Model the fold of this input.
Amino acid sequence: MSMDHPRYQIRAAPARGDLPRNGDVGKVLEIYHETEMWVKSWFIAWMTLGDGFQWDAALLDRTLRPRPEDLRKLAERRLGEAKAAARTLGVPENHLFFLGYPDRGLLHLFLENFFTPYRSPATRMDRVAYPGTVSPGAPYTGEAWETDLRRILERVAPDIVVAPAPEDAHVDHRATAYMALRLLGERGWLSRLRFYIVHGGLEWPLPKGLHPGLYLEPPPRGRHLAWQRLDLTPEEEARKLQALKAHRSQMEILGRFMEAFVRKNELFTPASNPPMAP
Done:
């Protein structure tokens, strides 16, 4: 299905300043899981560092059964890669926030472990233990996670916040969306929130691999949403690819999937989606 199919109703962004873009001067906070950095933001917050991705640790360490220490080492490696990607995009290091909560555990923190610490089955940890994080030693609880994000929002006071959508198939992405809705809703800032989707359904986006001349179409899990399209220049596409390549540990196992997001446009949807026009 093409992007002009009536079911999609893609709208061009009404104003360039309304959505984040390389070179924007407005304050933008990207509340980010750890998978794909695809747009320059003035401030970026990473919820996790990938310490639950056992397949990645197994590939990098050439072992069938990665140990907890292997996964902790992977997290520290990914933190360094995230900094390198941010440098590529021109985001200063003091605009980066690494929270270090458990990969594949955020939904537990939000729903079940808001006050009682969660223990990661991958790393055997129950608190933030990585150097360079926002709150080292903070317990793996929803309360601690919420406190960290609230402090970041208070410090940045962003004009736009970009976060994964509740429709994203990844459990950490969904949990991040719920937390963003909660914190921005309590401030009356929902109009500032924009969502994107990374894990959007079986085989999306197609074709896999690098196809910078194609448009990114809406994912199957988000076809009901009111999407806004932000077109990119060839230079911005090239910068995006360069930033993705900085995530070397992920490119080794997810390269073709990640490269498939280097397209002629980005897609964003408002937090409060109005009905699609007939």
User: Anything to note?
Assistant: Residues 68-89 form the longest helix (22 residues). Residues 1-17, 22-26, 33-41 have pLDDT under 50 and may be disordered. Residues 230 and 266 are 5 Å apart (CA to CA).
